[in-house]
Write a structure and sequence with these properties.
Distance between the termini: 22 Å
Low-confidence stretches: 4-16
CATH class of the largest domain: Alpha Beta
Largest sheet: 7 strands, mixed
CATH architecture of the largest domain: 3-Layer(aba) Sandwich
Protein name: Glycosyltransferase
Pfam families: Glyco_transf_4 (PF13439), Glycos_transf_1 (PF00534)
Number of helices: 17
GO molecular function: glycosyltransferase activity
EC number: 2.4.-.-
Enzyme class: transferase
Strand content: 15-25%
Length: 393
């Protein structure tokens, strides 16, 4: 187990401070929606009321942990637990000892693996467990289906389950023993992080100077994100002015590179990989496209709205929650490349429509989906679970 510490105010621990000590336990791989969600939450929690650690359990000693690296750079205390393979009893012991030594009041988990670790490691410690499920896969393979089923079995043993959307809340409410523990806290975005970036990435600037229109995607390169549909739309007739910037990485990257080549997209599609400066790319997009087959409430769409970039998204529950067709963005039928192309052509033909959608999206996300609002609700939940006078443990 390794630890990193910054900020003197947080380094002193909470004994006698009256603050609630929270361990956010996230994924060790990548810095995508759920991990950025954790960072948005911890940045908005009041430090005079909450002492926050950000942690992860990694499978291999040499692997980097982007979540903890980013949290550390922001001044938060971080801890990395090491597991021998996908899951091991040793990691449970590490987490449990850490909870006891640092008097953790709440472990907040994010995903089936951390849910299981959090529930088992906290037994007998007095530590409360809060789980935030970040969404389900629309067409999982057998292995993933087993993991997601396991997660549903774990939820009744948590002290609170906080889904990000009403649809997820309804789904979880059907599980015996979960209904009374549900706390719907809708997704939020760190508006300050988005607003702080005004630089446009150099490649985006060059494309615009060449007269191109830029469609952008930020996220994982995996099946289920609908990227095949996006490629097909760009390969259609009349789409020659559009270029596509893909910011992110994933196991299907090479497969998508091959597909783009086979469709004749050539230099019109560029894979930029994972980029910490993703928001400087976003600032250069003419539109943000999310063609996913399933989502919770996608933070990437929120970030695009916060940057006043018009959104084109698949007509699925998670996207409909944010995008009102024709008012805060455009929706198209899932996996329908022709309709996606039509939506992009509509924006190209009517710059005033694009501007209006961007402005309406900005007002919608700032009024209803700020990270500060989300943190306020989680703060109240944490305080409900932990008595005002912290018990000796």
């Amino acid at each position: 187990m390794t630890q990193k510490t910054r900020e003197e105010m947080q380094a002193t621990g909470t004994c006698g401070s009256g603050r609630i000590t929270v361990l956010q336990l996230g994924s060790p791989s990548g810095l995508y929606g759920a991990e950025r969600w954790i960072l948005a939450l911890v940045r908005s929690l009041p430090p005079d009321r909450f002492d926050v650690w950000v942690g992860a359990v990694k499978d291999h000693p040499r692997d980097p942990v982007p979540l903890c690296e980013q949290a550390h750079s922001l001044g938060f205390k971080t801890v990395v637990f090491e597991s021998r393979g996908r899951f091991s009893p040793s990691s449970l012991g590490q987490v449990r000892r850490f909870m006891q030594r640092n008097r953790i009041d709440i472990v907040h988990t994010h995903g089936y693996k951390t849910d299981l670790i959090g529930v088992i490691a906290s037994l007998g410690t007095g530590c409360r467990v809060v789980s935030t499920p970040h969404g389900w896969t629309s067409d999982p393979d057998l292995k993933l289906r087993l993991y997601e089923t396991l997660d549903r079995v774990i939820f009744p043993f948590c002290d609170a389950v906080a889904p990000l959307s009403e649809a997820m809340s309804r789904d979880l409410g059907r599980i015996p023993g979960v209904g009374r523990k549900l706390h719907l806290i809708e997704n939020g975005v760190d508006l300050q992080e988005v607003e702080a970036v005004d630089r446009v990435e150099e490649s985006m600037t060059r494309w615009k100077e060449e007269g191109s229109l830029i469609a952008g995607y930020i996220g994982r390169l995996i099946h289920g994100k609908g990227l095949e549909t996006l490629f097909s739309a760009l390969a259609g007739e009349g789409m020659g002015k559009w270029r596509l910037a893909l910011v992110g990485d994933g196991p299907q990257r090479e497969e998508f590179v091959t597909l783009a080549g086979r469709l004749g997209l050539g230099e019109r599609v560029r894979f930029f990989g994972f980029r910490p400066d993703r928001l400087s790319f976003l600032r250069g997009f003419d539109t943000f496209v999310l063609p996913s087959e399933s989502e919770g409430i996608p933070r990437c769409v929120m970030e695009a709205m916060a940057a006043r970039v018009p959104v084109v998204a698949s007509d699925i529950p998670g996207c409909r929650y944010l995008v009102e067709h024709g008012r805060t963005g455009l929706l198209f039928p899932t996996n329908d490349a022709a309709q996606l192309a039509h939506a992009l052509q509509s924006l190209a033909a009517d710059p005033e429509l694009a501007r209006r959608l961007g402005v309406a999206g900005y007002h919608h996300v700032t009024e209803s989906f700020s990270g500060a609002r989300m943190a306020l609700q989680y703060g109240r939940l944490y305080e409900e679970l932990v008595p005002a006078a912290k018990p000796e443990r």
